[in-house]
């Protein structure tokens, strides 16, 4: 924590030295000692709520005054002047607390002051309103202060009396008054926080502390658009909302785990999730200078942290988005982890890991608790990160870093704001096979409840059940008969209306997608209810929807096929649609024409308002690909998409990977698989070695066999001279994971990578030569390569070398040099673990403690 916006917590020693004993000796306030840290955090959140506020913005001066007092105390300087200013600021501070805790009383007192009927809203009135002193106690003469038996009440009373001469009769203060000014001011600041802590915490749940980073505005708009579309048509499901909200808000059994809500497409999972985020949101009256901008982009905040699967499949983009939501609700943002290397940890450290396996029970982030060589157990509030000697011995994967960061950020959110909800809708849209959800902590922090929604029977749902802490699986049922009028807007008043709603319920079986379609027809068609047609199956609806596209002419048909073919990959920006159409037709619409073309089918697509377009219903995309068109129809169109991708500039490699993962799957028709495989050949012809390596990397797993497209891309990148690809490929051949083992080829590729200066290859080769692991043992050469990688500041090599020297593992024991390498690695990493917020003085404190460094 940098403390730039946390002066109360930064100067906790000042409060501890001057007022903690007084609190401990107070029958009324003794319990505040146990909540000391939480009270100071509450104070900093009040400062954030008052930041740039027209009425209470000057409260921020308290932070500056604490800073000055602490600095002068450290130099034994005279603090009397600034202490007096701090005492003067207590009135505005107390008024701010009255506004947060007693809004009605605040409005009355403020109105009375403005009408000048009586001067009640001053320091006297604020102390009385907050119940710090009674009216009778406030009316005591200054020399009667000892009639108050509680030491905190005495201090507040004397602070009130001392403040009046300072404000109204400036004069040199006597010694006794000077000595009690600062403790009295600090107690006056802290006491009301303890008295009203529950109300303040609830009120400050409405606080927005930071603005939205520009990098996530695109996905934020996409999620907001999808959520808004669901809310605009939502009706019914009242009992479901009540039950789910109660579980997420109040059921202690759900804390630390997930509800898994499953249902077939068209049952209304996403709409229910959208409505639930509204029910869990803050309502009106948000606080904070950034609240308006945040609410425009993400109107569910401050509230649940959410992601809608159709908006992105990119784990990094999703985690950045989730982290950004958390950061607008905490005082100091949790940083996104810098540097996201990929490696095979076992290729570095297998002998050490095999020698001693200890599970760190304090920190479970994924499907497996990390097995580590453990030096000592760390205590204290920040329990999310593993000790240096132990955890640093694993070169964490990208998903590990994401998972750690998200877990830590959720811990911070709970600490500052209280219970939290993390919701991910349509998990099957986020990833094809499930591993794309590995950024989610297997077990959520205490105080956090998770909600996942998805289709049953998918690989993603199975992955979630096997790898995440699913507390309760729930199956969403179709609508009940009493809910039908809520969707159709036809009340059960007259016989004709009852008959109509009965028919809708009978023929649709209460499937919300079918009922919603009928409801739209009710609003657009004229005539008798008996004449309104009711589709009884999804195929009937999909056929009608496809015909709406076909009625738009050739351009409508081309855009529909494009969206259906691209649906498994990502949302399409409008420029890519134009690029695709330029390959399929000579009549390419400009942007206004394209938007106008899509407007009649706007109900079938998502993201039109933010120009990230996707078919709203996945089974409809499947229907178009499998029922409307043959493989022969689709092949030239998929070729046009592949050519567009091959020539696109600035397109993320994950987009290529998702395209290839879906379209090279054995489940796809052979002609379409061949088109996708041809995209790889186009990239090879372009000599796009780095692109090929980046495409392969997301599916380059530690144990499972990689998909064929991934192996082909990594091998091609290596053959084109990409050193990191050589290191990955060689390591996989040696380890016998991802690829069948081939020791000679593995060593050849590793040595080629080292010849090109790849530090990862040096570290892998060095460790394997030292251990004789899959290679002929050569300690001298192994040490040379490991030191060369460490000298190049490759983090895994520095950690491995340090640990080996500490343990005498295949190297001559040299604990002093070993610690120097671990310290050097810490300094290279900026002194902190992934997700740790930087400390102001000296890097990450837990890590420095383990290395025996001073704070």
Beta fraction of the residues?
under 5%
N/C terminus separation: 14 Å
Query: What is the strand arrangement across the widest sheet?
Result: 2-5-6-1-7
Low-confidence stretches: 166-175, 340-396, 830-855
Mean pLDDT reading: 84
- Give me the count of strands: 10
**Structural class based on helices, strands and sheet pairing:** mainly alpha
Helix content class = 55-70%
The biggest beta sheet, please? 5 strands, parallel
State the helix count: 41
General form: flat
Tell me the radius of gyration: 32 Å
Outline the structure in words.
It is a single chain. The protein is mainly alpha-helical and 855 residues long. The protein is built from 41 helices and ten strands. The strands form three sheets. Strands 2-5-6-1-7 form a five-stranded parallel sheet, sandwiched between helices. β9 and β10 (612-615) form a beta hairpin. α12 packs across α14. It starts with 6 loop residues before the first helix and ends in a 5-residue tail after the last helix. Mean pLDDT is 84; it is low at 166-175, 340-396 and 830-855.
Question: What is the gist of this entry?
Answer:
The protein is about 55% helix and about 5% strand. With about 850 residues, it is mainly α. The model is unreliable at about 165-175, about 340-395 and about 830-855 (pLDDT under 50).
């Amino acid at each position: 924590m940098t403390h730039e916006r946390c002066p109360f917590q930064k100067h906790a020693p000042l409060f501890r030295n001057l007022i903690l004993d007084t609190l401990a000796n107070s029958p009324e306030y003794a319990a505040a000692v146990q909540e000391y840290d939480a009270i100071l955090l509450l104070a900093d959140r009040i400062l954030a709520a008052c930041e740039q506020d027209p009425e209470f913005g000057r409260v921020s001066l308290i932070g500056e005054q604490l800073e000055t007092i602490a600095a002068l105390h450290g130099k034994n300087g005279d603090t009397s002047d600034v202490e007096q200013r701090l005492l003067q600021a207590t009135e505005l501070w107390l008024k701010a607390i009255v506004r947060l805790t007693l809004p009605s009383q605040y409005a009355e007192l403020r109105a009375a002051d403005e009408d000048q009927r009586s001067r009640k809203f001053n320091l006297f009135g604020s102390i009385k309103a907050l119940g710090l002193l009674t009216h009778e106690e406030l009316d005591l003469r200054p020399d009667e202060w000892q009639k108050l038996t509680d030491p905190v009440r005495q201090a507040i009373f004397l602070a009130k009396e001392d403040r009046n001469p300072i404000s109204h009769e400036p004069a040199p203060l006597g010694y006794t008054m000077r000595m009690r000014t600062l403790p009295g001011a600090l107690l006056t600041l802290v006491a009301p926080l303890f008295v009203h802590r529950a109300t303040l915490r609830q009120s400050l749940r409405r606080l927005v502390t930071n603005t939205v980073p520009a990098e996530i505005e695109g996905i934020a708009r996409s999620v907001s658009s999808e959520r808004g579309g669901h809310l605009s048509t939502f009706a019914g499901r009242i009992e479901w909302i009540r039950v789910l909200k109660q579980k997420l808000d109040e059921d202690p059994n759900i804390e630390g785990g997930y509800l898994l809500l499953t249902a077939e497409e068209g049952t209304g999972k996403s709409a229910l999730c959208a409505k639930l985020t509204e029910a869990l949101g803050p309502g009106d009256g948000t606080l904070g200078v950034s609240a308006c901008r945040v609410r425009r982009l993400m109107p569910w905040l401050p509230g649940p942290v959410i992601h809608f699967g159709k908006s992105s499949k990119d784990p990094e983009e999703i985690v950045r988005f989730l982290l950004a939501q958390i950061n607008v609700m905490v005082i100091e943002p949790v940083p996104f982890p810098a540097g996201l290397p990929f490696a095979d940890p076992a290729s570095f450290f297998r002998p050490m890991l095999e020698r001693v396996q200890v599970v760190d029970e304090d920190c479970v982030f994924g499907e497996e608790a990390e097995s580590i060589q453990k030096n000592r157990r760390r205590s204290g509030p920040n329990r999310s990160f593993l000790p240096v000697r132990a955890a640093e011995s694993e070169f964490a994967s990208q998903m590990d870093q994401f998972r750690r960061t998200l877990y830590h950020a959720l811990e911070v959110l709970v600490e500052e704001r209280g219970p939290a909800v993390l919701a991910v809708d349509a998990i099957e849209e986020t990833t094809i096979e499930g591993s794309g959800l590995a950024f989610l902590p297997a077990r959520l922090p205490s105080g956090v409840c998770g909600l996942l929604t998805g289709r049953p029977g998918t690989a993603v749902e199975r992955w979630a059940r096997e790898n995440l802490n699913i507390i309760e699986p729930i199956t969403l049922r179709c609508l009940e008969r009493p809910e039908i009028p809520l969707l159709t807007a036809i009340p059960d008043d007259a016989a004709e209306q009852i008959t109509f709603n009965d028919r809708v319920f009978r023929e649709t079986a209460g499937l919300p997608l079918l009922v919603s379609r009928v409801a739209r027809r009710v609003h657009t068609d004229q005539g008798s209810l008996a004449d309104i047609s009711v589709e009884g199956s999804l195929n009937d609806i999909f056929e009608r929807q496809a015909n709406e596209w076909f009625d738009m002419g050739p351009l409508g048909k081309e855009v529909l096929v494009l969206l259906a073919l691209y649906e498994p990959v990502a949302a399409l920006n409008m420029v890519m649609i134009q690029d695709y159409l330029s390959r399929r037709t000579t009549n390419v619409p400009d942007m206004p024409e394209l938007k106008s073309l899509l407007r009649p089918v706007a109900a079938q697509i998502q993201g039109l308002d933010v120009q990230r377009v996707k078919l709203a219903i996945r089974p409809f995309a499947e229907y178009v690909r499998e029922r409307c068109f043959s493989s022969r129809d689709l092949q030239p169109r998929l070729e046009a998409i592949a050519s567009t991708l091959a020539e696109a500039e600035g397109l993320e490699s994950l987009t290529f990977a998702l395209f290839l993962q879906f379209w090279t799957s054995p489940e796809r028709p052979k002609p379409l698989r061949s088109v996708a495989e041809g995209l790889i050949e186009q990239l090879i012809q372009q000599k796009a070695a780095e692109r090929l390596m980046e495409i392969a990397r997301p599916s380059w797993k530690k144990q499972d066999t990689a998909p064929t497209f991934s192996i082909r891309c990594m091998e091609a990148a290596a053959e084109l001279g990409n050193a990191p690809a050589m290191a990955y490929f060689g390591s996989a051949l040696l380890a016998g994971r991802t690829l069948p083992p081939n020791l000679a080829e593995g060593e050849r590729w590793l040595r080629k990578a080292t010849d090109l200066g790849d530090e990862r290859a040096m570290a892998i080769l060095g460790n394997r030569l030292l251990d004789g692991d899959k290679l002929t043992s050569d300690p001298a050469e192994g040490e040379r390569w490991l030191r060369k990688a460490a000298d190049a500041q490759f983090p895994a090599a520095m950690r491995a070398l340090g640990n080996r020297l500490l343990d005498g593992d295949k190297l001559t024991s040299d604990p002093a040099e070993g610690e120097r390498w671990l310290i050097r690695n810490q300094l290279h990493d900026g002194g902190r673990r992934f997700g740790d917020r930087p400390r102001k003085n000296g890097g990450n404190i837990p890590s420095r403690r383990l290395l025996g460094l001073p704070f």
